[in-house]
Design brief:
5 strands, disordered C terminus, DNA binding, Helix-turn-helix domain-containing protein, 5-stranded antiparallel beta sheet, single chain, Beta-Lactamase, MLTR_LBD, 434 Repressor (Amino-terminal Domain), Cro/C1-type_HTH, Lambda_DNA-bd_dom_sf
Length: about 300
């Protein structure tokens, strides 16, 4: 069993720091409520809800602890100690990972943060993927698909999306944004044929313009625009054109290190409440690209571009 997303290095470091939490830190945490909530949410999830086989001898009601831990990208020991009313106060990143792994709704995610002694994150524009979208992802095991936010930060990838695009969850800081990497890191463009790159540049600048319009002054979008204007002459040129609604590059052509060029069509599903987009990549049935998508599991991930 492999979760779609693993906890990042920063989340693991935070968890390690949490192991040394003092008793005083626990004064803000309701251990009993936290443990009971995690247990009931875990038991309410069925294996089929998260894309796991039930198996003929399964007797556990809902998910096992080790399954919930793996889906949340953490060790079974760490997760189990939370359900046993012991262990550290979980950090906000760890709580976010648990909320995603257990497919919590936004009210459930807020409750989890509060009983663990944290303020609930903002609902609008958060990185939390709703259970409905998670259920769709769980049924796309054999399809490259990913969820991104309005700054083109990848929140979730199916295994085949990782094979096609590389692991985009490894980036941190401003480099999480594809817009930033595109205009500052030449290695990012190696995924696309050279003749397609100007159209991608035009589209990315236009999409960032739209995100800036929605978010306004003082937002992360404004900060990203400011950094790009300082570091990329190409971006500054596209930005000065003030283009909105540039056409998406369709079909998309990706260059895989082992399989060569793969042509796909990108289907887009928007979640306007969360400012998130589900991208699903499909090839024409029976085409050479369709066959290459089927070979992705054997080919493995493309050569990863270095981080910015």
């Amino acid at each position: 069993m492999a979760p779609y997303r693993r906890a990042t290095d920063s989340e693991r470091r935070t968890a390690s720091d949490g192991q040394r939490a003092t008793d005083r830190e626990w004064q803000t945490v309701d251990r009993a409520q936290l443990a009971d909530f995690l247990r009931t949410r875990r038991e309410a999830l069925q294996p089929e809800d998260v894309g796991l086989p039930r198996g003929p001898r399964r007797r556990t009601r809902g998910l096992r602890r080790e399954e919930a831990a793996a889906l949340s990208g953490m060790s079974t020991d760490y997760y189990s100690r939370l359900e046993q009313q012991r262990g550290p106060q979980p950090s906000a990143p760890m709580l976010a990972a648990i909320a995603q792994g257990l497919h919590l709704s936004l009210p459930e995610r807020d409750h989890l943060f509060q009983v663990a002694g944290h303020n609930a994150p903002p609902r609008t524009g958060s990185d939390h993927i709703t259970p409905g979208l998670m259920r769709i992802l769980g049924r796309l095991d054999d399809t490259p698909a990913q969820v991104i936010n309005d700054l083109a930060e990848t929140l979730w990838q199916t295994p085949l999306a990782t094979g096609l695009l590389g692991d985009e969850s490894r980036f941190v800081g401003v480099a999480r944004s594809l817009y930033y990497r595109w205009f500052t890191d030449p290695a990012t463009r190696l995924l696309f044929p050279e003749e397609d790159r100007p159209r991608h540049s035009r589209f990315f600048a236009s999409e960032l313009r739209a995100a800036y319009s929605r978010k306004g002054r003082g937002s992360r979008a404004e900060a990203l625009v400011g950094q790009l204007l300082e570091t990329s002459e190409e971006f500054a040129e596209y930005w000065s054109a003030h283009e909105v609604g540039a056409p998406r590059v369709e079909p998309k052509r990706f260059l895989h290190s082992e399989l060569g060029e793969i042509e796909v069509h990108c289907q887009v599903l928007l979640d306007p409440d969360q400012g998130q987009t589900l991208l699903v990549y499909t090839a024409v049935p029976g085409s050479e690209s369709d066959e290459k998508l089927r070979l992705l599991p054997a080919a493995g991930s493309r050569a990863a571009a270095p981080e910015s």
